């Protein structure tokens, strides 16, 4: 009790400092944003027989993937990550679909792969009339607007009308390309392979503007660029694009999206997309106050952990000694029980080497355990050579087949032929893998003679 009473002041300090630190509004917002959702149990959705058959017939769903930061990208280890990857992992757990990413390096290459049947679906394509000719689109699971990006120093772009008689650069086969060609013919449209090339042309002055996803427009240093207004009426839903001719896959994806818990979807989007917009800079005193509070919090926490460490260490040492004693008692009991068996018994590993035997086994073969430990039957002159080779071969076959064996036979020992009931069974480890054989035998003549002696008495 005195020990815990001494901890009360430290606990009070930690509580007070934690409250002060968490009171900082900016930092509190970040904590809320990244605490995200708690793990949610994944329940398999109900699929039709036709849909289950499609999954069995298509063990892999090829996803044509182009890197788009935060939505879909490769991390430093080369693994796919991002919001859309999390979505696919969750859908995989709900449906049994196995998604395999195949990287494309531009929108045009990605669309070409889908058109030619080299991929089954994609996660980063916006819907357009051109794409609907060869793609089906799933239900929406979010969305964002298209943003105009121009040069710094130029008038802020507020509408596409401002780009009349000017050059707009877009990645080839952009979702907005068809709309701009149809509704704004006075805009000179230039196409390149990637968004990076489009931004570079705007910075160099060879183009007046480009159009990017709302998320993408905030991800890169502004430099010579300026983020303008949203393209009016261009809000685009996030959808999964499926190559036509796969109605079962589209139906499975839609069912998964319908069953997706809204709270978990919100948490995923917060995890990846919250905080993209620039945050106002904290003043020097706000930063000093915040880091000072957290510094005191960690110092106090370290002091508390130091006080608790000796107590915890003593408990762990005592527990370890108790476990060692219990284990020793169990091993001693098992050996005593093993030695008390009247019939010879043995344990052999996967190569047929002797691991353990009881006293009856030593007496039956006239060998001490330390003389035969680790030996196979064909080693050490334990049995006549013909007998040893036959039994060793049976043991190896039995380990491979994992079948128990019970047989009555006449067997030649070093001291003569005996009529025995022999048994051997495989034994398994906690991981379910076979570890060796447990076996033994009963000497029939010995049992009969013991029975006659008891009757005589």
Automatic annotation (TrEMBL):
Q: Which UniProt keywords apply?
A: Kinase, Membrane, Signal, Transferase, Transmembrane, Transmembrane helix
Which residue ranges run through the membrane?
Answer: 288-309
Q: Which domain of life is it from?
A: Bacteria
GO MF annotations, alphabetized = kinase activity
Q: Where is the signal peptide?
A: 1-23
Show the CDD domains listed in the entry: PAS, PBP2_BvgS_D2
One matching Pfam family: PAS
GO BP terms in the entry = regulation of DNA-templated transcription
What the entry lists under SUPFAM superfamilies is as follows: Periplasmic binding protein-like II, PYP-like sensor domain (PAS domain)
What SMART domains does the annotation carry? PAS, PBPb
Where in the numbering of this chain does the Solute-binding protein family 3/N-terminal domain appear?
60-276
Checking InterPro entries in the record gives: BvgS-like_periplasmic2, PAS, PAS-like_dom_sf, PAS_fold, Solute-binding_3/MltF_N
* PAS domain location: 332-400
Known PANTHER family for this protein?
Answer: ARGININE-BINDING EXTRACELLULAR PROTEIN ARTP, MEMBRANE-BOUND LYTIC MUREIN TRANSGLYCOSYLASE F
Q: Which family does it belong to?
A: Belongs to the bacterial solute-binding protein 3 family.
Could you tell me what this protein is called? Histidine kinase
Upper taxonomic classification of the species?
Bacteria, Pseudomonadati, Pseudomonadota, Gammaproteobacteria, Pseudomonadales
């Amino acid at each position: 009790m005195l020990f815990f009473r001494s901890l009360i002041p430290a606990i009070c300090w930690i509580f007070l400092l934690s409250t002060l630190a968490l009171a900082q509004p900016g930092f509190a917002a970040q904590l809320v944003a990244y605490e995200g959702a708690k793990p949610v149990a994944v329940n398999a959705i109900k699929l039709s027989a036709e849909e289950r058959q499609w999954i069995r017939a298509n063990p892999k769903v090829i996803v044509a993937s182009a890197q788009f930061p935060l939505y879909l990208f490769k991390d430093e280890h080369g693994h796919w990550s991002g919001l859309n990857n999390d979505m696919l992992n969750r859908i995989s757990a709900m449906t049994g679909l196995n998604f395999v990413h195949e990287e494309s390096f531009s929108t045009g290459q990605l669309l070409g792969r889908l058109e030619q049947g080299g991929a089954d679906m994609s996660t980063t394509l916006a819907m357009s009339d051109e794409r609907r000719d060869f793609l089906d689109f799933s239900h929406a699971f979010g969305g964002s607007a298209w943003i105009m990006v121009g040069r710094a120093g130029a008038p802020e772009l507020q509408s596409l009308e401002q780009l009349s008689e000017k050059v707009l650069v877009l990645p080839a086969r952009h979702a907005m390309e068809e709309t701009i060609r149809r509704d704004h013919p006075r805009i000179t449209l230039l196409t390149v392979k990637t968004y990076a090339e489009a931004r570079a042309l705007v910075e160099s002055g060879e183009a007046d503007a480009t159009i990017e996803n709302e998320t993408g427009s905030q991800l890169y240093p502004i430099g010579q660029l300026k983020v303008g207004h949203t393209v009016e009426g261009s809000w685009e839903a996030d959808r999964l694009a499926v190559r036509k001719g796969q109605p079962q896959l589209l139906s499975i994806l839609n069912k998964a999206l319908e069953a997706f818990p809204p709270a978990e979807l919100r948490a995923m989007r917060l995890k990846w997309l919250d905080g993209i917009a620039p945050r106002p800079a904290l003043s020097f005193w706000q930063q000093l106050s915040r880091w000072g509070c957290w510094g005191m919090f960690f110092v106090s926490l370290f002091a508390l952990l130091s006080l608790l460490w000796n107590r915890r260490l003593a408990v762990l040492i005592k527990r370890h000694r108790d476990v060692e004693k219990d284990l020793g008692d169990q091993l001693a009991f098992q050996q005593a029980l093993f030695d008390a068996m009247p019939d010879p018994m043995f344990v052999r590993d996967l190569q047929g080497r002797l691991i353990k035997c009881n006293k009856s086994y030593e007496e039956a073969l006239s060998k001490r355990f330390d003389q035969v430990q680790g030996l196979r039957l064909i080693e050490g002159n334990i049995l006549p050579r013909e007998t040893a080779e036959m039994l060793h071969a049976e043991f190896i076959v039995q380990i491979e087949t994992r079948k128990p064996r019970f047989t009555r036979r006449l067997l030649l020992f070093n001291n003569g032929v005996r009529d025995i009931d022999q048994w051997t069974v495989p034994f398994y480890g906690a991981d379910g893998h076979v570890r060796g054989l447990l076996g033994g035998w009963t000497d029939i003549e010995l049992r009969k003679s013991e029975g006659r002696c008891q009757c005589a008495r």
